[in-house]
Amino acid sequence: MLNIAVILGTTRPNRASGPIGKWVMEHAAKKEGWNAELIDLRDWPLPFFNEPQPVMALNGEYSVPLAKEWSKKIAGMDAFIVVTAEYNHGYPAVLKNALDYLYAEWTNKPVAFVAYGNAGGARSVEQLREVVGELQMHDIREAVHVMAPWFAIKDEAFTQGEVYEKKLGMTLSQLDWWAKLLKDGRDGK
Fold it and tell me: Which domains are delineated in the chain?
């Protein structure tokens, strides 16, 4: 089984990542061989990273107890789907902080993106690709870019179209392929 985390990368009230993340989870839960889990950054109120040493030098010895739990949670995952907004041509600070708290726990694992905003979150994903590359993650080429999601969310449900369904299917298929390959590599197979 592959452990797949769907990470909600925003924490503000009335966020679109909740309904969109639920839609992603419905699809991820149906994938054969996947154990999908929703990770909401609201449940992980990490303070801004302020350790006395760079994360790679800490060897898991965080001064913040929640960071140790965060480390264990992410270390147990084989792949990630990040659901993110676009804020002022970038991605949310809470997501950057969650990424920056760890290093080895992200390394050699694939990540896919489901983004939203006026430009479908494309600019936030472009910036995230640079960051996850530095973390030695493999970013999946396919992504889902939801244009103006506030028109597609009614009563906390995301009303997706055929195009989004198809893009999500392609994205999850690529993530599955890379997750298996990289898991074998990490396991020394």
Answer: 2-186 (3.40.50.360)
